[in-house]
Design brief:
With about 400 residues, the chain is of the alpha/beta class. Helices cover about 50% and strands about 5% of the residues. The longest helix is centred in the middle third of the chain and has 20 residues.
């Protein structure tokens, strides 16, 4: 694709990066076939190719409008288009650039600004946990739209002492997962303990930055990234941990991009690169021990695995994860359109509920045809979103493995 950037963009870091990405696009349109929003809305401007044209026009000097902003907002950032693209267009980075530039030039309505700010601050607030517990205690009384955002609370169970293990890893505390689904972290610690690995959380580490980054606060997100690097760096530098383990693929995808987001920071660029080299999804850590765990697990369970977009398209870990689950004895059931987004996409399901719910129902309809006993996934957002539309249990796979190990130990 030929480009002619406006003077204000030419020669800048963002302009140079965007220009290199744009020039790789060959207009082929393969991306439209795998774009969830294009499949739902049927509008070329709600496809990757259409959004690429919109961003190109802005970078070449055309003033963006609220319509431009809306088309970029509707993107799920699932990056399915990147998996499909034969030219290797880094669409995810391009849409980040486009959103940042458009948001600087197009003022959102008061209502939209307020909604995004309140959502961001609520999710990152220390009051989120007590508010979630209150919501869970009153869940039966909540309106349906709110009830589907509040998961039933389950007991996380006792945690083992793991300091004696020779192998040690860090876990990310995150922002909403400890309050919404504490069983995921607890299960991760117990499963890693079962294979001789101790997991701990570094004081000072918090949200990965994804919430702020995708809610018009990219500078705030970068500050959160630096804070996590600072929290992890002493343990990484001293060689006390061999990996930083992620059990939410959305967080893992974001942390694996720290080196990209901090590449121009003279203080943090190398540290971020060193951190990224240690980041592993929990499936990557558990996979070498599948045979050991399988010997302690009962007969296989009929399961459908929904691979989150941040796992399969951002990190390319769908094959490893599915092989791990098969090695652990799960009877994985195939279903249609496994590559498509379920509609959760972080805060997307709150900001664009109609599209999100249609994608959810499409996904659940495809899964239902396989008649699984349980739906497995690897990201809290997908788990909560899917569970809101089905009576079939939707769980993080590590939770189910943990439950099976505990039952086996009890009898």
């Amino acid at each position: 694709m030929q480009t002619n950037l406006a003077s204000w963009a030419s020669g800048t870091d963002l302009g140079n990066e965007a220009d290199a990405i744009l020039r790789r696009c060959v207009h082929c349109g393969f991306c439209t076939a795998t774009c969830p929003t294009y499949q739902v809305l049927g509008d070329e401007l709600d496809s990757p190719r259409g959004r690429i044209y919109l961003i190109k026009q802005v970078l070449e000097g055309k003033e963006p409008t609220q319509s431009t902003q809306q088309h970029l907002d509707r993107c799920l950032t699932c990056r399915n288009c990147e998996t499909t693209c034969p030219s290797g267009v880094e669409y995810g980075h391009l849409v980040d650039i486009g959103r940042k530039i458009v948001d600087e030039r197009v003022e959102r309505s008061w209502g939209d600004r307020t909604r995004r700010t309140l959502l961001r601050k609520a999710m990152l607030s220390p009051m989120f946990a007590p508010a979630m517990r209150l919501g869970q205690s009153l869940r039966g009384l909540l309106p349906q739209a709110l009830r589907r955002k509040v998961p039933e609370r389950r007991d996380a169970g006792a945690l083992p002492q793991v300091g004696h293990h020779a192998r040690q890893v860090l876990m990310l505390a995150g922002c909403v997962q400890p309050a919404m689904m504490p069983t995921i972290d607890a299960a991760t610690i117990r499963v890693l303990d079962a294979v001789g690995i101790g997991a701990r959380i570094a004081p000072g580490a918090g949200c990965c930055g994804a919430v702020s980054f995708h809610l018009d606060a990219q500078d705030e997100a970068v500050a959160q990234m630096r804070a996590n690097v600072d929290a992890w760096w002493p343990l990484v530098q001293d060689g006390e941990v061999e990996a930083i383990v992620m059990n939410a693929s959305g967080c893992g995808a974001m942390v694996k991009e720290y080196a990209h987001h901090l590449r121009h920071d003279p203080v943090y660029a190398q540290k971020a690169a060193d951190i990224v080299a240690l980041v592993k999804d929990v499936a990557e850590i558990v996979a070498p021990h599948a045979e050991l765990l399988r010997a302690r697990l009962p007969a296989g369970m009929r399961a459908a695995f929904h691979p989150p977009c941040t796992l399969q398209h951002w990190q390319g870990l769908r094959p490893l994860s599915e092989q791990l689950l098969a090695d652990l004895g799960f009877e994985l059931q195939s279903f249609a359109d496994k590559h498509l987004c379920c509609g959760s996409a972080g805060a997307y399901s709150v900001l664009n509920p109609d599209i999100a719910l249609e994608l959810r129902d499409r996904k659940l309809g495809a899964i239902a045809a396989a008649s699984p006993d349980v739906i497995l996934s690897a990201n809290i957002g997908c788990i909560g979103h899917l569970q809101s539309g089905t009576d079939t249990p939707v769980r993080h796979w590590v939770e189910v493995v943990d439950e099976q190990l505990r039952r086996a130990a009890q009898g």
